[in-house]
């Protein structure tokens, strides 16, 4: 006996596009620049807007800190060697639960003192290269997670 219900369900997969234009997002990354999506307050969802490119994109060439409802687009450090605890004083009063630290083109570890300081503030830090941090941020932010990314351009 053939199970037609199972084979029918494998033929069709519903995929929906995340079109929440009310928060900051990452659209693209390449070495030396990150394209972010800015919130679009004038966006109104309707059936005719699906797939339209009404995103407010901006290419940034500086290091940055991004969270769904906050963007610091002129973050001072350019590489991991310049990074100090003072650079994280720009985080909002309620920092994200998880902070992705993009360390540039390659994965490099910041000092133990810096990681310890952030951990003592209750922030879980995940360290990875900037390309991986951009991808991870995009996925977790679209899932509604309390996430932030500190991205070094290098």
In whole angstroms, how far apart are the ends?
A: 61 Å
CATH architecture: 3-Layer(aba) Sandwich
CATH superfamily: MTH938-like
Instruction: State the share of residues found in helices, binned by percent.
Output: 10-25%
Major sheet, described briefly?
5 strands, mixed
- Assembly state (oligomeric): single chain
Structural class: alpha/beta
CATH C-level label: Alpha Beta
Contiguous low-pLDDT stretches (5 residues minimum) are 6-17, 45-51
Based on DSSP secondary structure assignment, what is the total number of beta strands? 8
The pLDDT mean sits at 82
Percent strand: 25-35%
Number of domains: 1
Overall shape: it is globular
Protein described:
- With 154 residues, this protein is an alpha/beta fold.
- It has one domain: Hypothetical Protein Mth938, Chain: A, CATH 3.40.1230.
- 19% of the residues lie in helices and 25% in strands.
- The strands form two sheets. A five-stranded mixed sheet has the order 5-4-8-6-7, with helices on both faces. A three-stranded antiparallel sheet has the order 1-2-3.
- The longest helix is centred in the last third of the chain and has 13 residues.
- The radius of gyration is 19 Å and the shape is globular.
- The termini are far apart.
- 23% of the residues are buried.
- About 12% of the residues have low confidence.
């Amino acid at each position: 006996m053939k199970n037609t219900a199972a084979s029918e369900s494998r033929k069709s997969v519903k995929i929906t596009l995340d079109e929440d234009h009310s928060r900051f997002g990452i659209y693209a990354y390449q070495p030396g620049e990150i394209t972010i999506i800015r919130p679009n307050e004038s966006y109104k969802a309707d059936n005719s807007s699906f797939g339209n490119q009404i995103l407010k994109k901006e290419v940034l060439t500086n290091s940055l800190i991004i969270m769904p409802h906050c963007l610091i687009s002129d973050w001072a450090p350019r590489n991991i060697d310049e990074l100090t605890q003072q650079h994280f004083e720009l985080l909002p009063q309620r920092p994200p639960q998880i902070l992705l630290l993009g360390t540039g083109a390659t994965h490099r570890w910041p000092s133990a003192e810096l990681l310890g300081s952030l951990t003592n503030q209750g922030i879980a830090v995940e360290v990875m290269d900037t390309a991986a941090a951009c991808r991870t941020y995009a996925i977790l932010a679209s899932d509604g997670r309390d996430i932030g990314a500190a991205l070094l351009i290098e």
